[in-house]
Design brief:
With about 230 residues, the protein is an all-alpha fold. The protein has 9 helices and no strands. The chain folds into 2 domains: about 55 residues, Arc Repressor Mutant, subunit A; about 150 residues, Tetracycline Repressor, domain 2 (Orthogonal Bundle). The chain is elongated.
Length: about 230
């Protein structure tokens, strides 16, 4: 059991960490990933560079923690929004909408570190020194993939999905469709129409998986406010 002093210290640390990460997003968007210096982030957050080292060792650690935070936020939102869904297509539509809405709100940040120039692209090797954070980030990806698979399994069990393809293959193909939309947004340098993108994916999935409609009593609203069991 932690003491009240430790609780206060943890609360202060979490608050200041959030301040730094919030400031870092703005700096990365304004200057770009490679041009951003640690002192730029410190100044934007209202810290000295020395004080910033108490929370993060370098720019790479800040960037990784930003990615981790955004993925954790996405998983939480997907879970809440899926809590009232009762069929595969309804769940898939809700998942895709949540992913696109969340990503769309952070599109400028995505562009800030996505550079097609090999000389300016992010080098994955730069982040290998932060294995703990990398492991947490990888776990987020695993958790999201699990949600996709769970939804596909439910679709097969309910009789909505009628295809001999295995669960893993179906889930991977659906993820690829979503990633393809993101790639097009990135290449164009702007977001597409979210509802049109959803419509395209769902139309393709309906045909490819030979979907049989069932009675869905839930809603596809983006915010349902409950928790989805993964």
């Amino acid at each position: 059991m932690i003491s009240k002093k430790e609780e206060r210290e943890n609360s202060v640390r979490q608050s200041k960490t959030k301040m730094i990460l919030d400031a870092a997003i703005e700096v990365f968007v304004q200057l770009g990933y490679h041009a951003t210096r640690l002192e730029d982030i410190a100044e934007a957050a209202g810290f000295s560079k020395t004080a910033l080292y108490y929370y993060f060792k370098d720019k790479e650690e800040i960037f990784l923690n930003l990615c981790l935070r955004e993925h954790e936020r996405l998983i939480t939102e997907v879970g809440k929004n899926l809590s009232t869904c009762t069929c595969f297509i309804d769940s898939l539509t809700t998942m895709i909408r949540t992913i696109f809405v969340e990503a769309g709100e952070r599109f400028s940040f995505m562009l800030a570190f996505s550079n097609p120039d090999p000389g300016k692209a992010i080098n994955p090797a730069d982040f290998l020194k932060h294995q703990d954070t990398l492991s947490k980030f990888k776990q987020c990806r695993i958790d999201m993939e699990r949600v996709f698979r769970k939804n596909v399994e439910r679709g097969i069990q309910s009789g909505e999905i009628n295809t001999p393809l295995p669960v893993e293959e179906i889930a991977n193909l659906i993820e690829s469709l979503i990633k393809g939309i993101f790639m097009r947004w990135w290449q164009q340098g702007k977001k597409g129409d979210i509802e049109e993108e959803i419509k395209s994916i769902i139309t393709f999935v309906r045909s490819g998986l030979n979907i049989k409609d069932v009675n869905c009593s839930s809603t596809t609203a983006v915010h349902s406010g409950e928790t989805y069991e993964q």
